[in-house]
Design brief:
Keywords: Membrane, Transmembrane, Transmembrane helix. By secondary structure, this protein is mostly helical. It has ten helices and two strands, in the order H-E-E-H-H-H-H-H-H-H-H-H. Helix 3 packs antiparallel against helix 5. The longest helix has about 35 residues.
Length: about 230
């Protein structure tokens, strides 16, 4: 989906924002200069206005489908991960910590790719408040279910032979800050473990910030962002 967004950007297919004041192009002067330069280097011709409008509509529909797919994939994985993590059907005894960590990262990637589509599709959701609210609820449920797994995965040393249950028991019995291979920080506060802790804080902070900003974009007037920030749109 990221490739689709990049293609849409350079083909100038990203839909304009619309408001009572009229349409507002998502491309500013800097964007147009970059796109013209890239197109000239690659010898790509620009679309005519009418052709661009038709392609922009098709691009929006296709991107919406991919966005829905990523949201559903991330939410489904988050639910499955949570059930297994809580010991449903004793699956946590059969699943390795390595598989658990990979599943969390896959769900995390789905969340990130979905977030990338929100800004592009915000004008579509401005006109459809019910769909917008349903999507926001899905986004919030997904990230709430996934946050603990993200923190645990960043603190993990993946081992294909250690079961998820053994790893979880070891992690929480000794504590995150005890001196062992599964802890975030050793008792001596080594540089590596301190880096892991700072990485967890940074990743979680950036993820929460990205969610808050995208949700605000879905509900707030896009003209306000442009007037306050100027670029990027």
């Amino acid at each position: 989906m990221l490739g689709v967004i990049v293609f849409g950007y350079f083909a100038m297919l990203i839909p304009d924002d619309e408001d009572d004041l009229g349409p507002l192009s998502r491309y500013n002067e800097f964007d147009e200069k970059v796109i013209r330069k890239v197109n000239s280097l690659l010898r790509i011709r620009s679309f005519k206005d009418e052709t661009r409008r038709r392609l922009s509509h098709s691009f929006q529909s296709f991107l919406l489908t991919l966005s829905d797919q990523q949201l559903f994939t991330g939410f489904s994985l988050a639910v499955a991960i949570t059930i297994i993590r809580q010991g449903g059907q004793d699956l946590d005894k059969e699943l390795s910590m390595y598989s658990y960590v990979n599943s969390v990262y896959l769900a995390f990637f789905s969340c990130l790719t979905h977030l990338a589509s929100i800004t592009t599709l915000r004008n579509y959701f401005h006109k459809r408040k019910l769909l917008c609210t349903i999507r926001v609820i899905g986004m919030l449920l997904t990230i709430v279910l996934l946050l603990r797994g993200i923190v645990e995965s960043l603190a993990a040393f993946p081992d294909s032979e250690t079961s998820l249950r053994c790893w979880i028991d070891e992690l929480y019995q000794t504590g995150f800050f005890d001196g062992n291979d599964f802890s975030l920080m050793s008792s001596g506060s080594g540089p590596y473990n301190l880096t892991v802790l700072l990485t967890i804080i940074l990743v979680v902070t950036l993820l929460v910030d990205a969610y808050v900003r995208r949700i605000l974009e879905l509900y707030r007037n896009p003209f306000g962002f442009t007037l306050n920030l100027g670029w990027p749109r």
